[in-house]
Amino acid sequence: MITGNMYFIVTSGFGSGILTGALIFFIMRLTRKKKELIGQYNTSFVFSGNLKQTSLLDAIQFLEIGRREGILHIYCGRRKGYLTFQKGQIVDAFYRNETGREAIFKMLDLPEGDFYFEPKTISQPRLINETMMDITFEWDAQRNGGVIQE
Q1: Distance CA 78, CA 135 (A)
Q2: pTM score, two decimals?
Q3: Does residue 150 belong to any structural domain of this protein?
Q4: What b-and-e string marks burial along 54-74, b requiring 16 or more CB atoms within 10 Å of the CB?
Q5: 99 shares its domain with 133
Q6: Domain check: are 52 and 85 in the same one?
Q7: Is a pLDDT exceeding 50 seen at residue 105?
Q8: Nearest C-alpha neighbor of 100 from the set 72, 123, 126
Q9: How many domains does one find in the chain?
Q10: Which residue segment(s) compose the domain that 4 sits in?
Q11: 84 located within any domain
Q12: d(CA 54, CA 149)
């Protein structure tokens, strides 16, 4: 025969078991989230510099090797240009009134200025099909009067 006190004991034992189980569940969940957060880092990529200290070719090569995606902004006084990268390859360029290879040639000729890279997902058609190496060889040949140096 179960009395009123026994119902109270059984019910309170059952209730405290549920509360204890819920508390353990939430504690385990919080510790797991902490472990997940410890292994996660903000991988925001910041890259900027001055063209007197770092040549534009070096900056481009760094972005190519890292297979970066985003926009390299170039500033020379009030003049602004950009190079758009997809998986480390230049797909678009603009400087002053020039686009494509001609814009890259003008930016490579800049004696001074600043640049910074803005990482972002690029979804535009490829407007430049040549590799940067081919563009650099052509730019160097134009600078040296069409003579390729060995």
Answers
A1: 25
A2: 0.66
A3: no
A4: eebeebbebbbeeebbbbbeb
A5: yes
A6: yes
A7: yes
A8: 126
A9: 2
A10: 1-40
A11: yes
A12: 23
